[in-house]
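User: Show me an example of a complex going from sequences to C-alpha cells.

Assistant: Sure. Here are the input components:
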Amino acid sequence: MTTLVAAQGWHFRKPSVIPGFGLTLGFTVAYLTLIILIPLSGVAWRSMELGWAEFWAIATDERTVRALRISFGASLIAAMVNVVFGTLVAWVLVRYRFPGRRIVDAAVDLPFALPTAVAGISLASIYAPNGWVGQLLAPLGIKVAFTPLGIVIALIFIGLPFVVRTVQPLLEDMDREVEEAAATLGASRFQTICRVILPGIAPAVLTGFALAFARAVGEYGSVIFIAGNIPYVSEIAPLLIVIRLEEFNYAGATAIAAIMLVISFAMLFAINLIQAWSRRRFGYVG
Amino acid sequence: MDVSIRSVSKEFDGYPALHDVSLDIRSGELIALLGPSGSGKTTLLRLIAGLERPTAGAIFFGDEDASHRTVQERNVGFVFQHYALFRHMTVAENIGFGLKVRPAANRPSKREIRRRASELLDLVQLSGLEDRYPSQLSGGQRQRVALARALAIEPRVLLLDEPFGALDAQVRRELRRWLREIHDRTGHTTVFVTHDQEEALELADRVVVMSRGRIEQVGSADDVYDRPNSPFVFGFIGDSSVLPVRVENGKLWLQDRFIGIEVRDVPDGPASLYFRPHDVELLDGGGGCIAGTVTASRRVAGTRRVELEVGGARERVEIELPVDHPEAANSRISFRPRRWKLFPASGGTAALSATDDGSAGKADEAELMLAASL
Amino acid sequence: MSVDTLTGMPRPAAARPAAAHSFRRPTTEGPLAKAILITIALGFLALFLVLPLIAVFIEAFRKGAGEFLAALGEPDTLAAIRLTLTVAAIAVPLNLVFGVAAAWAIAKFEFKGKAFLTTLIDLPFSVSPVISGLVYVLLFGTGSVLGTWLKAHGIEILFAVPGIVLATVFVTFPFVARELIPLMQDQGTGDEEAALSLGASGWQTFRYVTLPNIKWGLLYGVLLCNARAMGEFGAVSVVSGHIRGLTNTMPLHVEILYNEYNFVAAFAVSTLLASLALVTLVFKSFLEYRYGDEIAATAKH
C-alpha cells in the first residue's frame, strides 16, 4: 500500500527544479513503514488471527468492557472540564494583561513537558487521603486518589494544553471589529460573548475537545499511580493491556488494543471532518 | 438626526489624536471625513459611534447629549473597513442580529426578522443570498451585507469607515454610485471616512478635510477645490504648484521680476503662491508673467504635464497644457495662473489673498467660460 | 462665499470635560468580571499544574538533602540516568533526520497522496503509548516469526535496549517533522530556486539556504522530541522488562521506587525529570519569544 503511495507520488508529482525528491520521499516512506506501519499492522494481523468468536469473547468480557467504559467515561468528563477551563484560560491569556502572564502562558505546556510518571506520582501524593488536597477533601467524604475521580483528575492534567493551545490562536486572530460591530448593533457584552465570540471559536473548541479526549483515552503513565487500579472499578483499558501482556495473554492484549485503535482512528477522522467542515462553511479552521 | 460635535478632543495614552474639533452634521446629509492617515478621521467617526470616549468635549444627537450613552444605546449603524461580518452566521442571520439581540419587549418575531432581512437584501441588491456564509461572498457583496446589517437596526446615524478601502477600483466606483442611491432613498444622516479625495468629492454633500487631528475645512466639493482655505487643503485636494514670492506694494515679485499679479490689503513680505497646474494661461514672455525653462515634459492621459525651472533659484513648478498646444515644444515657457491663492510664506495658514476676491478673478472666470463655449 | 460652520459655530454648552462616568470599551469586560475570570483561571492552573510540580520538589526533600543526594547516588539510579541519556541520544537524531527528510519531501514538492502521508506521520500521536509498546512485543515477542529467528541468532530486542529505543522512536516520531512541515511550507521554494539558479548544488542549497531558515524551528522540534524521549513511560514500560540497572529508564525507575514505597527516592529521581521539563519549557518559551516568526506558529505541540 505504501509503495503504491510512493509510486504514485513519483509519477504524479508536479515538476520541480528542486532536487532530492526521490531520496527524501523514499527515506520518509521507508522509515515510516519500518517504524510505524509494519509494527502497527501487526495488531490488525494478530486480531484477525484470533477469529471473530474469540475476539468477540475478549471484547465483551466483563473486565474489558468495564475498563473501556472507565477509560472512555473518565476521558469524556476530563475533556469536558478541559473545554470549560481551557477556553477560560485561553481567554484570560489572550485578552487580559496581568503580571506574570508570560510565565503562566509558558506553564500551560507543563503537561506536555513533564514526564507522565512524574505527574502520576505527584498527583497521587497530593490527592492521597493525607496529601495536600486529599486531606481537605477527606472530611467532606470525597475520595480522589485510588478512585475513578482520581483518573479524571490525572486526565484533566494531561489534556488541558490541547484545548488551550487550539483555542488560543483563534482568539488571538479574532478581529476586534467583529465585537465592535456586535456592540453597535445593540448587543450587550454578554450577548456578544455568547452569540458572537463563543460560536465563532466553537470549531476550535471542538477540535481541542477531540484532541484532549483522544489523548486521555490512551493515557497510561499519569493515571496508574492515582487510579488504584481495582479491576472493574478503576482499571483503565491501557492498564488492562499491560496486565494481559504480563500474563503473556497476547490475544487478550491485542484485542483490546485493536478496539482502542479503531476508536482512536475514528476520533482522528472526526477531527479532520470537523476541520474540513469548518473550513468549507466558515472559511477558517479551528 | 442632526449630529453636533462640540469641542471634542481625544488622546491615546498621551498621544493627541484630535484637538478641539467641532462640527455640525445636518439631518439627512452625506458627509465625508477626508484626510491622510493619522489625520484623526477614523477616531472622530469612532467617537460619534461611541466606540471611543472623548478626552474632552461632547457629542449631541439632536438635542440630546449622547456623550454618556454607550455604543449600544446610541443606535448607530457602523460599517467597518473590513466589514466585520460574523463568520459563523448566514447572511440573513448577520442582518437580523441587531434585531435578535433586542430586549424581548421590542424584539420582532423570528418571521418578522427574517422578512426584514430579505427586504434589506433586496435593497442592497443581493436577493436570494440569505443562506450563504460570508466566506462564500465576494468583497463587494460582503460590503453590501455589512451595510444591510447596519441599516437593519434603523440607525439614527449611519457611519462608514473606509467603506470601499478593501475593494478593487472597478467595484469601488460601482459601489460608490450605489451608496449614493441608497442614501438618497433612505435619507439617513451618513458620515463616511475616506482617504480618497475622488471618492469624497464625488459622493458627499459636504467634505470635512482633516489633518493632524484638526479640521482644516468643511464645505462642498466646489468649496474645498476652488476655495481651499489653507495650504494643506490646496495641496491635498487636486494637483497644485507652489512658488515662493514676495509682496511689495500690492505686487507679487518672483525674485526681481514682477509676475503680473496684483493684490490688495496684503502686507509686504515673503508669501507662497498656490495655483492649479491646469489653470494657467500662456503668455508671450516679456513682463508680467512667470517664465521658466522646460526641464521635463510628460504625457499624462489627456494632458501634457510640463515641469519648469523658474527664476534664479531654479524653483520647480508644474503646469498642464493641452496635448496639442504648440508652446509645449518650446524650451522656454511664460505663463500666469488664472486662479491662485496667496498664503503667508511660513507657519500661517490663513489665506492672504485670492483671485476670487478681486476683479481680476471675475475677469478670469469670464475668460474661462468663453474658452469652454468655444 | 459661505462661512464654514466650523469657525462661526455657536457653542451653547461650552466644552465640558467628557463625563465623569466610567467608560468601558465595548470590546472588554468590567473590572470585576475580569478579576473573577483571571482568579478562576489562575486558581485552576495553580491547582492542576503548579501544585503537582511543587509537590515533586517538596516530597523529594521531605527527609532532607542528605537522603535526596543518597537516592540520586545509588548505582541503579545512575544506571537509569545513563540508559535514558543513551536512548535519547539514539532516538532523537534518528527522528531529526527523518523529520528533515519528510519535511523536505512534503513541503517542497507537490505530489499525490501528500495529505495522506502527513496524516500517517501524525499517527503515533493518536496511538496510546501502551499500544506503541505492544506493537513491538507482537513483532518481536515469542511466537512471532521474527522474534524466533532473532532469538536463534542471539539478538535480543525485547526487554533489552534496542526495544526501548524502538518504542521511544515510535512515540517521538512526529515531533520534528510536525514543526518543520508547516514552517517549510510557509517559506515556499523561492529561496531554494534562487540558490539553484545561482549554481548551488542540492546539498549546498540545503546547507546554506534552507538550514539557516529552519534552524530555530528545527531546534524547537528537537527540544520537544527530546523531552518526550527522556520522559516516555507507557511504551517503554511495555518493552523494557524492568530489569534494574539494565533496562530501567528514569521514568521506569521512578515507578519501581514508588511501588517499593521508597517515596523520597522516587521523588528525587522525579526532580531530575521535572527539571528537564522546566528547562524545556524555559527554552521553548525563549525560542517562541525570540524567534516566534521563524518557528511555525501554527503547531504548538
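The lines above are the inputs; the final block is the predicted structure for all three components together. The domain at 81-299 of chain C is CATH 1.10.3720.10 (MetI-like fold).
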